[in-house]
Design a protein that fits this description.
Helices cover 44% and strands 15% of the residues. It is α/β, with parallel strands linked by helices and 246 residues long. The chain has two domains: 196 residues, Rossmann fold (3-Layer(aba) Sandwich), CATH 3.40.50.720; 36 residues, no CATH class. It has a seven-stranded parallel beta sheet, sandwiched between helices. Helix 5 links the parallel strand 5 and strand 6. Helix 4 runs parallel beside helix 5 and helix 6 crosses helix 7. 47% of the residues are buried.
Length: 246
């Protein structure tokens, strides 16, 4: 497929799934803008292709999101990928920790989609990178799961509002990914349980019926499919990329 002539904005584009998405869309011929809070990882991704540009932005901040789109210009594809995860028993979770999960995972998606849709020139795709935590529950991550459930609800509602336009809104819901975020989860498991790194990874992979971590390239392939020919009728969908977990 080719996305030549299309501009794609990807938040959280400096590492993990965001970086993989940037590479995949650049290879498909798109003009790619990667956004995030840290300049260095964004610059590294942008250095991989002439068609990738970095923009420093904080999706939690309304003015920063507006400035991000002013720098990027009108975008045909907007991927709200920026996110963060933390874990703790519910009874030990502070209000600040809860609100932090909401701010980056849910409010960030809302602000990115709202500004992106307002500037979308015509045909368009709004894609949220959510999680299987947006479709089910997991222990010790209640705020994260609540935020991701909110993202799925936002996607399904917004999809109905734009249904008469050449725009679709969908969510990708991967299971545990082989990324830096999972590395941090592994470190937390090791610290709390004394497990070896290998056993901690196996414990996370066990959530997937295929007994493996999902690769960022699989999320990229799904996002490209949502932008390809024949995808016009896929709207308001939460696609589980999890080996059959949900």
């Amino acid at each position: 497929m080719t996305l030549s002539g299309k501009r794609v904005l990807i938040t959280g584009g400096g590492t993990g799934v965001g970086a993989a998405l940037a590479r995949g869309f650049a290879q498909a011929g798109a003009d790619v803008v990667v956004a995030g809070r840290r300049e260095e990882p964004l610059a590294k991704v942008a250095a991989e292709a002439k068609t990738i540009r970095p923009v420093v932005a904080d999706v939690r901040d309304e003015a920063s999101v507006r400035a991000m789109f002013e720098t990027a210009g009108p975008c045909d594809v907007v991927i709200a990928n920026a996110g963060a995860a933390s874990s703790s028993p519910f009874a030990e979770t502070s209000l600040d920790a809860f609100q932090a999960m909401m701010a980056v995972n849910l409010t960030g998606t809302f602000l990115t989609f709202r500004e992106g849709l307002a500037r979308m020139p015509g045909w368009g795709r709004l894609i949220a990178v959510a999680s299987t935590a947006g479709l089910k529950g997991y222990r010790y991550v209640a705020p994260y799961a609540a935020a991701k459930h909110g993202v799925v609800g936002l996607v399904r509602s917004l999809a109905l509002e734009v249904a008469r336009r050449p725009v679709t809104v969908n969510a990708l819901c991967p299971g545990f990914l082989d990324t830096e975020m999972t590395d941090r989860s592994v470190a937390t498991i090791r610290e709390n349980t004394g497990m070896s790194e290998d056993d901690a990874r196996k414990a996370l992979a066990a959530n997937n019926p295929q007994r493996r971590l999902i690769q960022p390239s699989e999320v990229t392939a799904a996002a490209l499919w949502l932008c390809g020919a024949g995808s016009d009728g896929v709207n308001g969908h939460a696609l589980s990329i999890s080996g059959g977990e949900v």
